[in-house]
Each structure stands twice: as C-alpha cells, then as structure tokens.
Amino acid sequence: MLADTPVAVAPLRRAVSTLVQFVCAALVAALVAAVGLFAFDRVQWPAFNSSNVTQAVTTVMQFAALAVLGLSIYLLRRRRWVTGARVLSWAALSGLVTATLGMPLAATRLYLHGISVDQEFRTQFLTRLTDSAALRDMNYADLPSFYPAGWFWIGGRVANLLGMDGWEAFKPYAIGSLAVAAVVALVLWSELVRSDLAVLAATATTLVVLAYGSPEPYGAVIAVLVAPALVLAWGGFLPATRGGRGRQGWGAVVGTGLFLGLAATFYTLYLGIAAFVVTVMAVVAAYLARRATGSWRAVLPVLVRLVVMASIAVLVALIVWAPFVFDVLGGNPPSESGTATHYLPDAGARLPLPMFHMSLIGLLSLLGTVWLVGRASSSHRAQALGLGVIAVYLWYLASMALTAVGNTLLAFRLEVILLVLLAAAGAFAFVDFSRWISLATSENPRVRRVLVAVGALGALAFTQNIPQVLGSEITVAYTDTDGAGERADQRPAGAASYYAEVDDVLLSQLGGERDDHVVLTADTSFLAYYPYFGFQALTSHYANPLAEFSARAAAIEEWSELSSPGELLAAWEELPWRAPDAVVFRQGAEGYTLRLAEDVYPNDPNVRRYTVTFPKELFDDPRFTVTEVGPFVVVTATDEPA
Predict the structure, then answer these.
(1) pLDDT digits (tens, 9 = 90+) for 574-611
(2) Which residue in 213, 215, 190 sits closest to 201, CA to CA?
(3) Is the CB of residue 5 less than 8 Å from the CB of residue 189?
(4) Cβ(205)–Cβ(256) under 8 Å?
(5) Cα(601)–Cα(540) distance, rounded to whole angstroms?
(6) Which region, left, alpha or beta, applies to residue 610 given φ > 0 means left and ψ of -120 to 50 means alpha?
(7) pLDDT per residue over 189-208, tens digit each?
(8) Tens of pLDDT along 110-151?
(9) C-alpha dist (Å) from residue 269 to 87, 138, 211, 295, 340
(10) Pairing of β 624-629 and β 632-637
(11) Which backbone phi and psi does 535 adopt, to 5 degrees?
(12) Cis peptide, bond prior to residue 445, ω within 30 of zero
C-alpha cells in the first residue's frame, strides 16, 4: 500500500497528466451516460411503479457495472493494463450511475420527484437558463439570480444547444452530470490514494449519493466530491504544521480553493459546510504547528494557506454571484421576506446516528466510525474525514440552537454529506480490517476469498435496493403531468395538460417572446415549463430576497378587494415592480381564484396555503381579455381598449 502522506504539488508534467485524466474521464462518463440514456429511450418500457420489469433490467445492469468495477480493482491491484483498467473504472462507474437512475426512469421524461414542490423551482431555473444565458432570476423580472446558477447555467446551455426545452433536458442532464461528477471524484481519489482503493472509495460514496442525494442533482454533484476534497484540503494544511519546508501542499491549496468555488457556484449550503470544515482544519493545523514549534509564528503559514483557498473560492464564486452582489451593493438590500432557512423537519431536530441503524448503510457507517477513531492518530485520510464528520455534527448542533431565535441552518440537508464521509471511511475500514483478518489467519487464501465475496455481495445488495429507497420519488416522476401534457403511467393527465393551450392564448394575445411578459399565477409549474416571468413565486422559501415576497402577496390580496377594473389598473400602474401582463386563475364558485402561500415557521409544515378570490366583474372591461381554458381562466391586459 502507498504511504498515507499529504498531497504535494506535482511537477508540471504530472499536473498536466492529472488535468488530462479529469478531462478524459469526464468525456468517457458523458459518452456512457448519453449512449445509455439514448438506448433506454429507444425501448417502450412499462412504468416502474406498475411493473417489475424495469427493476429486473436495472439489477442486471447494476450487476454488470459492479463486475466491471471489480475487474478494474483487480487489475489495478495487480498493476496489469493500468491505463485500460482506469478507463474501465470510469466507464463502469458512470454506467452504474446511468443504470441506477436512468433505467427506473426510462419510461418517463421527468426526473426524480417529477415537477412537484422543490423540483418545480429547479425545473423553472433550468427553463429560464435554457431560454437565455443571462444570470436572471428564475421567476422575477429585472432581478439577478439569487440561487447559485452554475449547474443550471451549464444545463441550460446544453439544452439550448440540443434544441430541447428545459423541462425535457432536466432528466438526462441530471443523470449525465452525476455520472461525470462520480468519475471526476474517482480521478481525484486516485491522486490521493492507491488506484484500487480510489475505485473502492469512489464507488461507495457514489452509491450513497445516488440513494440519498440524487433527487437534488445540483447538490449531489458536489456531495460526491466532498470526501476527496476534504482529504485534499487537509493535505494542503499539513505541510504548514511541519515548518513549511519546501512547496509541499500548494497544489492541494489551489485544488481546495477551486472546489470551494465550484461549491459556491452550485449549492450554497454545501459551500457553507465545506468552508466550515476547511476552517476547522485550519484551526487544528494552527494548533499542531504551534505545539510543534512552540512559536505563534508557525500559525502564519496556515493562515496564508487558508487565505489563498478563500481568495480562489471567492474569485470562482463571483462568476455566478457577481450580478446579485453588485445589485445589493448598488443600493438594493434584501427584504425581510427571505425565508429559505425557515424549515425544521423532524430530521433536523435530532443528531443523525446512522452507525446504529440496522441496515447495510448502518453497518458501513459503523465500520467507518470505528476506523476514524482507531486511525485518528496515524492516518491523514482518517483525520480529514473525521474532522468533516465532527464539523457536520457541530453544524447540526448550531442549527438546532438557532431555532431558539427563529432560524435554522438547514442541517437536515447535510445528512447525505455525513453518510458520504462515513461511507468513504467505511470503504477504507473494510480494506484495513480485511487485511488484519487475513494476517491473523496467516493470509489464508480461503479467508481472502470469503472477505471479497462478502464485500461484493454487500455492495450488490445495497446497489439493487437504491430504486426502492427512491421509490416515492420515482413514482412522482410517473404520476406528474409533463410538459407535453402527458403522464408516463398512462393515467389521465392533470390540469397541466392544458398548459399548452394557455401558452397559445398568452402568445396570441400578448405577442412578442415569452420572457417579455410577467404572468401572475398560482399554478407556478406552468412557469417551469414555459419561460414567462412570474409576478409571485411558489413560496417565500424559494423567492429571491430582493423580490419583496410579502409585499407582493399583500398587494395581490388588496387587488381582490377592489371594486372596479379602473382601480385595478391604477393599482398596477403604481406598483414598484413590473405589473402582470396576464393572470392565470382557476375557476372558483364565487369568482376567479389564486392559491397563495405564506411562511408559518416554526410550524411543520412551514407553509400555509390560502385562497384569494377575485370577483369576475373586476375584469369586465375592454382593456381586459378573458379566455377560459379547461380549469383555467386567462386574463390578459392591454394598454388600449379593444
């Protein structure tokens, strides 16, 4: 086994070689995902929630991918056909991702969780950035994007290039980006540990992310990179604890800064936990340096490395954050309506202890926990992963403490990060424990075979169960109505089947392009399929804090109480925001209705729905055109009387 040493700056030749590996691995993964998804789409599969056929085919593909991964580990371990073995591992790992997610979803055009709740605003964001490359808010006109646009911008550009609608591109792009991230993580692991261990660790962490993080694909691509990135970061600090001899560790410093910047452009919460872990590492490294030298001057190299990491991260983050930052600095401060952290489910009110769960992930977490504690003083990998685990628990405690002052840190979303760190530790633990058992039995080949068989069967058992773990998310992907107005389970479609007619009415009556217009509607999934701007977001939790969500909601309620069309139009003229060009209502018994939402945290659920009813007489004016489309009433406003 290679020595467990901190990462060093490689010569230029090695750096170029590593970069080439990243690029080649990503290309292989993208190709495998594209070919796999294309092949799945050529066959008329039954719906996953009504047939076991797709589960059976998924299992066969997963078995094949795991077998190829096992072969690559064997070849790398024996140092035979190393280059070919690496390419095999890239293809097999990306194939495992594609089969595990793509095959269960093969008969639907929607991704996990369909177009419901959180997936609705994510699809809306991708639709917005498919329509235009500008970093505009997903919903509100004339505002810069508040949510990190990195993953969505790339996907939007790919969809635009391929001539696909945003909603239609979401599934293949989500699966493809996860496949690419998995092999990029594998290459990164290969720079930190022995190649066969890298395949094992990357496979373990990828499977955990698929099972518990894949419904949030833009976060999952960061989650799968977290474990190797933290090992990289710890390698960047360690040389500073030893007097700063040579240039060792600066490559890791730059790499860590790039990872933090990438996290900032993809997922703010994961940036927060990654930056917190890196800061904890810096504090520990500073303490070790001070203890080793007896001088506080030894802390300075640690601080310099931390500052360099942060500076690189900020520069990368500004790629997507600059418009929002400049808008705020230009005198447009966020309103009090930003309530994104007002959510405390049961999972966020207690510390997660997966190592005590009676399951395969529980067993792997227990192995990892034992290894982290036992190797804390001798393994830099264990130190890095252990500090990550400690930081996650500290984040949980801080989040629960903040509930006393009316806020949270959304700690429940970090459970997948905790599982990833423990899974990586568990993979290393299995190798170490297997070696110790083998030595204790005088390296009996039968014992080795038993250990390998147990590990392989455990991996297969966990892998084939992933579609069941994601069962509810897969079911929603089949029961939601897609952008073509169809349900993949062949049942009668919902109200969204009328969206195409609503869109035709809006385009014919308003003219211009869709993103020229602002539409007020409570059926915000319409805005996820068609890139109109919305007057109001689904809830305040997804709303841009610059948009004044509460004030907009209050204005909508006031409009419903007006007595004449003239008063309504006058109210729209006086708005501090762009007024609606159209309103898409639902038919109600007493008029036209909009179902709105308000934040009621600390209650769980944290959202209260309420209905606002507009009298029909409010639009009885030549300046309004009223059109009924199925359950909807489309009202468009004109500047002049018809």
Answers:
(1) 999 999 999 999 998 889 999 999 888 888 888 889 99
(2) 190
(3) no
(4) no
(5) 11
(6) beta
(7) 999 999 999 999 999 999 99
(8) 999 999 989 999 999 999 999 999 999 999 999 999 999 999
(9) 33, 19, 20, 36, 11
(10) antiparallel
(11) -80, -30
(12) no
- Token pair 């594609």 in the structure block, residue: 98
* Token pair 């910047």: residue: 261
Contact 64, 93 (CB under 8 A): no
Token pair in block for residue 72: 């690559």
Q: Are 393 and 351 in contact (CB under 8 A)?
A: yes
- At 445 the pLDDT is 83
Distance CA 266, CA 232 (A): 20
**Rounded distance between C-alpha atoms, residue 206 and residue 179, angstroms:** 9
Extract the tokens encoding 199: 């395949």
Chain center to CA of 88 = 27
Burial class (CB in 10 A: 0-12, 13-18, 19+), 431: buried
Backbone φ and ψ for 273, nearest 5 degrees, come out as -70, -40
* Count of Cβ atoms closer than 10 Å to residue 180 Cβ: 23
On the question of pLDDT at 244 being above 50, the answer is no
Buried b (16+ CB within 10 A) or exposed e, 21-35: beeebbebbbebbee
To which H or E segment does residue 519 belong? strand 518-521
